[in-house]
Design brief:
Blueprint (H helix, E strand, L loop, with lengths): L1 H26 L2 H12 L1 H17 L10 H8 L3 E7 L2 E8 L1 H20 L4 H16 L5 H16 L11 H21 L12 H8 L1 H27 L13 H38 L4 H20 L9 H4 L12 H10 L5 H14 L4 H6 L6 H14 L1 H8 L18 H6 L5 H32 L10 H5 L3
Antiparallel strand pairs: 1-2
Helix pairs in contact: 2-6, 2-12, 3-5, 6-7, 6-8, 7-8, 7-10, 8-10, 11-12, 11-17, 14-15, 14-20, 17-20, 18-20
């Protein structure tokens, strides 16, 4: 009997190894790794831009937020506002600050608007730099910083240095420039055929710069030629001829990409397709973590650009949900898999002699800040079939509440950013501009996750009781927790 059980376990582990091996290769693939590292590097800029937006709107009343801003409320309380009707058919009112309040608001708004313009408003300039650098570092070229600089130059070539594409609208092009531009540059440099050799007395920094001259020029030439080829093909498809006709001007690759790919995708997302993508993301993050693969890092490179695009659209009045503020702020409580309620239930329900309960006590402080490695490796979650179902499917199920709240207009769509380590309730308040309804949505998610985890914690309690020789009274499910294991 024991031999049969051992053989079954061995076959099961072999099957898991076969499944994990290709997934591990995907997670370590150099382009996905560069995307992950690149988006991790721009976090300071996105948060800086989000803080600037917070000050522009919530503090100084910019961008039409006078009525809900701190300065606007102070101005209104002191009689320094002019109240206007919104329109003839709407009884709502708005107000405009006057006097010194208006002057303070003007300077404050401009100050933080500049910060936003230099950070989040120029986010597509930073992406190719950091991705190119990550690609160069991963391939161990002599100067990875030059790889990042060339990637930025490729982005400027592809966009024609159009400043309107420096923000989120140029993000897809920035990804192409960061990956394809650096890949071509690294391949040319590693071949050594176009590298200029400088005399021995030339300073190393100057030598590296001149050595990259021809490879950099060839890369920029290739992408500039690509502009013409892509534009000519686009003109041929839209005008029926490859010749430049009246009104058919050459366009940059960025313009063509945005017209043929980005805009249709945004239309698909805004028409409801994003909900399905959100469920796919939340499910596969848990699935990958179950097999020991960092789900958020593996999928982050693909979904981070979509998240930022949806977020920027929300600031223009959208109600999108495919974004980090939703899956992290209203789903991943305790971290991937929504393990916070698992930890809390384990502390309350499991007995004092339970090893799992002891792990939960140590994991709780970290779980409040969405750090759940102690749970994944301590319970453990990884390769533990007992917890697979709630860990993989609990978050997608509980995300129903924020999706419904946002799509039906009951709660503000996220328009601000918050660090992923922000505790529950506070995270939702921040990203929705401190709308109190976010508290209720957060509570609904936590309650849902509690009921999803509860049967599995009770299962763990029965196993603990059996191993520790404790008899559990069926009349009171929580008796074992209060009495403890003797």
């Amino acid at each position: 009997m024991a031999t049969a059980v051992t053989e079954t376990k061995s076959k099961f582990m072999q099957t898991l190894d076969k499944m994990v091996a290709p997934l591990s290769k995907i997670g370590s693939q150099r382009h996905l790794t560069a995307m992950r590292d690149g988006f991790a590097a721009i976090i300071p800029f996105t948060i800086a831009g989000a803080i600037a937006i917070l000050f522009v709107t919530i503090v100084f009343g910019g961008w039409g937020a006078e009525k809900t801003s701190l300065l606007g409320l102070l101005a209104h309380a002191s009689g320094n506002t002019e109240v206007h009707m919104t329109n003839l058919f709407n009884a709502d009112t708005s107000w405009v600050m006057t006097g010194k309040f208006a002057e303070i608001g003007k300077y404050g708004q401009q100050l933080f608007a500049w910060i936003n313009a230099g950070s989040l408003g120029s986010i597509s300039l930073y992406i190719p730099i950091f991705m190119g650098y990550a690609m160069g570092s991963g391939r161990r070229i002599e100067s990875p910083l030059l790889s990042g600089a060339v990637s930025l130059a490729v982005f400027l070539v592809m966009t024609g240095a159009d400043s309107s594409l420096f923000g989120s609208t140029g993000m897809l092009v920035a990804l192409i420039a960061g990956l394809a531009g650096s890949e071509l540059y690294i391949a040319i440099v590693n071949s050594g055929k176009l590298n200029l050799k400088m005399p021995a007395g030339v300073p190393p920094a100057v030598g590296r710069a001149f050595g990259a001259l021809l490879p950099a020029f060839v890369v920029l030439f290739v992408f500039a030629l690509g502009n013409i080829i892509v534009s000519a093909a686009y003109i041929g498809l839209t005008h029926g001829s490859l010749h430049l006709e009246t009104g058919a001007q050459l366009q940059t690759s960025a313009k063509v990409i945005n017209s043929t790919i980005l805009q249709p995708f945004m239309l698909f997302a805004k028409s409801g397709g994003e909900v399905g993508l959100l469920f796919v993301y939340a499910t596969f993050v848990g699935f990958l973590w179950f097999f020991g693969i960092h789900g958020t890092n593996t999928l982050g490179g693909a979904f981070a650009p979509l998240s930022i695009l949806m977020w920027i659209d929300n600031m223009s009045g959208g109600n999108n949900v495919l974004m980090e503020q939703v899956w992290s702020g209203f789903g991943f409580f305790g971290g991937s898999g929504g393990t916070l309620m698992l930890v809390i239930l384990s502390i309350y329900i499991l007995g004092k002699g339970s090893p799992t309960r002891e792990v939960a006590k140590f994991a709780l402080p970290a779980g409040i800040f969405e750090i759940n490695e102690p749970v994944i490796f301590g319970f453990p979650i990884m390769f533990n079939v007992k917890y697979a179902v709630p860990f993989i499917f609990g978050v997608p199920i509980s995300l129903i509440w924020p999706i419904l709240a946002i799509k039906f207009g009951w709660m503000n769509a996220p328009t601000l950013l918050a660090p992923w380590t922000t505790p529950p309730f506070l995270y939702g308040l921040i990203v929705t501009q401190f709308q109190y309804r976010a508290i209720f949505v957060t509570a609904l998610v936590l309650i849902t996750q509690m009921f999803i985890w509860l049967p599995f914690v009770l299962w763990q309690r029965k196993e603990d009781a059996k191993e520790l020789g404790i008899k559990i009274e069926k009349k009171n499910l929580f008796a074992f927790a209060r009495k403890g294991a003797k």
